[in-house]
Amino acid sequence: MQWEVGSALNIASILVVVIVFAAMLIWVERRLLGFWQDRLGPNRVGPFGLLQVVADMIKIFTKEDWIPPFADRFGFVLAPTIIMIVILLSFSVVPFAPGVGIVDSNIGVLFVLAMASLGAYSVMLGGLSSDNKYALLGSLRAAAQMVSYEVFMGISLLGVVALTGSFDLREIVLAQEGGWFVVPQFIGFVIFLIAGVAESHRLPFDIPEAEQEICAGYHTEYSGMKFGMFFVGEYLGLVLISSLITVLFFGGWQGPLLPPLAWFFIKASCFIAFFILLRAAIPRPRYDQLMSYGWLFLLPLSLLNLLITGVVILSAN
Amino acid sequence: MRVPSTVSVTENLNAPVGLAAVEHLRAVFGDRILHEQLTCDEIPTLWFARESIQQALTLVREQTFAGQRFEMLLDLTAIDERVRVNRAGQPASEFTVVYHLMSFSGNADLRFKVPLFDDDLHLPTATFLWPNANWYEREVWDMFGIRFDGHPNLYRLVLPPTWEGHALRKEHPARATEMEPFTLDDAQTDIEQEALKFKPEEWGMKRASEDSEFMFLNLGPNHPSVHGAFRIAVQLDGEILVDAVPDIGYHHRGAEKMGERQSWHTFIPYTDRIDYLGGVMNNLPYVMAVEKMAGIEVPERVKVIRVMLSEMFRICSHLLFYGTFAQDVGQLSPIFYMFVERERIFNIIESICGARMHPGWFRIGGVAQDLPQGWEVRIRELLDFMPARLDEYDSMVLNNGILKRRTQGVGAYTTQDAFDWGVTGAGLRATGYEWDMRKQRPYSGYENFEFDIPIAANGDCYDRCAVRVEEMRQSLRIIKQCVDNMPSGDYKSSHPLTTPPRKEKSMQDIETLINHFLSVSWGPVIPPNEVSMSIEATKGINSYYLISDGNTASYRTRIRTPSFAHLQMIPAISRGFMVSDLIAIIASIDFVMADVDR
């Protein structure tokens, strides 16, 4: 087996590393939140509580795999698998380092957006098939939120695509050798960041699962491994968004001295930590406020950004 | 501290408005006032027959007396008089319904009583005069079986719909050992299940409007944001609230019934658990009411100790409110920071009282022990530490843009609404009405302290929070004055009815020894009287209405709690908002369910 893009070894190691990393984020997030909230966080199982994830996994795997009798079985089982599958598939186009990646697709950016759209089905289906009013409210909110924020997410990326002239994520990284796109595309970056939080529905945009309002939203009826998949799926989404920000705006693996993979890891980790900090710091806007903020503020802004980028590129040529 | 003012509480109570009202009523009703009762709280107490009570209430509601109104129906309750011995001069009655009216502008109280007989238990409703009479009348029906003619939905409020009997009647057993062993067979389970089934019509809701079908969401009794066992039946059109009907009683423990069973002294710890965040502040109205009936004057040191601890608990309660308020609009961190201060204060309270949340530390005639040596050290540390932290919280919570957009203009009501619904405390002050029991009717020496009453203008969720935050700063001011000026002296009065009685002389002569023995084993015998004592508790006006029949236990213990009144208002202020707003409204009310259900 050879170590090159698309090799079996490459695929296997990326799959394992990404899933393990996402699972470890459960521990990372709890420790970081603990640190920022003047408390300890999990510190009992293993050194620094590192084995907490193992304990959680044992619990989740041995829990009764229960499907409520009133739920629609097919949709109920399908929903959590969709989120895992589409997010893992999205990782296939992410270039982690030279030679590390699964596919270098010339429609990489479009593929990621397509997978994000499919991800919305997971949340909607989970809520609808549960036959629970809280879950229904959650999935209603999720559908509206994810569908709207996809729009700005897509438009905010187009500036980067226009600057590179390619949808291939590896090309985008290589095009940033002279300077990161965060500088010319700062507005695009901010919009992508906000839309990313909304897409991964984490606090402050965790409206589909707002605990204080609608219990657990769309996954109210889930327990055991199916809940575990939603849970890890959320962290996978977090890793994905952080990786994409790194790739699209912060030069991917590029950096001095350290090996490329290390640079990628450091950059992505910074964004993960930032997302966790967001959760500790900001309250949740109301559902309609989030919608009007998106459509009335982010949409015009992202269109304007695209327009200006286009004008600059045209005049430079 | 200022020099003690010369205006006493009673002079305040019978301020011109109360006297003017009584004179006016005398002129209008003449002989139809059955009796003018004297109570030791000196609240004018007039007896009316069932036929004239409605007219009397309407008159008081609509007229002004010396230019002021009686704005609020503070309390409405009943007394089972059938086994009461000492009621000389009062009209014959088996069940007496009691109305407690309050004038905020005139700072006066008025009490009406209506005698009723067991075979004919009904009287006209007051719901069309004061909307908050609704729940009070339902509670009276629930507890005593008294019907209110014309009441829109006279169902059980606190006890379950399948309950048999009326719990506060004297023949109703007070403890499980007086009843048959509890069993729940399948048939009974089915009956209970059926009773729990949600039928919108019974809650006064329609299933569908002309163009859409409503969704009914059962919020609670176990829901992350209802702060205890509290249920709201929510009628939704999309995410817009058409109606929200609160359902209470899941936390009912029969505190008022226990008050008739425990001795005067042993009921003190039960009061801690009414507003379980208020700690010893709950003891205060109770012990002051008993002291008033017993004629006990407490030493100055006791008053200041009581004020100091009460204010600490006010801060604790407000901190918890502040944190959960932020959390309910989605801000996860502040509550953890606020628990740091809460912990500091609880450490101080623990070192003084020996317990943290429910010390039960006030005693009739004093407090349980003297302050420990070096008590002020930690308090001074707190006073240095806390103001800066409060400023930090302001920048984190109150000045946060998202939080402002979530809470400003949400769940707003006017001062008049607050009066109509019996809203007191920070909820009233947030509407811009400056009224605080500690200032208007100083008790336990509050007249000697310098502090301000924070108010706001809009009466929305944000303002209710802002008022409480400022109250914490004022409480710190009061605590500082307590520490700087703690008087020396006894921690308990030398009156023979204090509990436990002082022992210095009990080994010297036989009479005192016998008295001491009886007073410890049976508890003190409080002379027959009636008293109502109100304080500005953490959540609003908390009032104990005690009736002594010359016994070692209370004949009737009525606990008027602020949260009960506040919850009743939820439908009126939440219609047309979204589910998320309802959560913000609930959070801003600051209630605990034990304070509602008792």
From TrEMBL, chain A:
Q: Which UniProt keywords apply?
A: Cell membrane, Membrane, NAD, Quinone, Translocase, Transmembrane, Transmembrane helix, Ubiquinone
What GO biological process terms does the UniProt entry carry, in alphabetical order? Answer: aerobic respiration
Which EC numbers characterise this protein's activity in its record?
A: 7.1.1.-
Q: Which GO terms describe its molecular function?
A: NADH dehydrogenase activity; oxidoreductase activity, acting on NAD(P)H, quinone or similar compound as acceptor; quinone binding
The chemistry this enzyme catalyses reads: a quinone + NADH + 5 H(+)(in) = a quinol + NAD(+) + 4 H(+)(out)
* First and last residue of the signal peptide: none
The record's note on quaternary structure and interaction partners says: NDH-1 is composed of 14 different subunits. Subunits NuoA, H, J, K, L, M, N constitute the membrane sector of the complex.
In which family does this protein belong, per the annotation? Belongs to the complex I subunit 1 family.
Q: What is this protein called?
A: NADH-quinone oxidoreductase subunit H
Q: Which organism is it from?
A: OM182 bacterium BACL3 MAG-120507-bin80
Q: What is the lineage of its organism?
A: Bacteria, Pseudomonadati, Pseudomonadota, Gammaproteobacteria, OMG group
